[in-house]
Sequence to fold (154 residues):
Amino acid sequence: MLIFSKIFFRKLQLKAIEEITFIDGHAVIKETAAEEFFIHFKNIFCNEEEIFLDKALQKASELYRFMGFGRLDLSGLTAEGGTASADSSYYVVSWLAKYGRRATPVCYFTCGFIAGILGAIFEAEPDTYEVEETQCMILHYNHCNFQVSKRIKG
Ligand SMILES: [Zn+2]
Fold:
């Protein structure tokens, strides 16, 4: 029940936050999701002496699917970044059902999820990774694709 409430809230959140023109709403959604899943994923692995990348990415993918957000292939990610893809997306389906097509990607929450879990896996800060959705199914692509890179800090 809590998960469904959160999902419903997030769909409304994107629509509402995009209507506020004086803040970068997409960044807010990404950063919030990154921080949330950074903490959650760190807790999952807190009792393990060593984190194996394949196992951790598989667990993250299963968590994402279990929460009802879709199928996310994270196997192309390393400590330096890489690519991820989704062949189903709650955000695409729900946006289409409620609002129809749009001209920009919609999976900002997923970008934050990926950044958060990578930060947790590689024991980095939650803002270490920059994730951009380069293709989204809402734009008629077959997959949503995400490009991940390390943020240059300084
Ligand atoms: Zn998408």
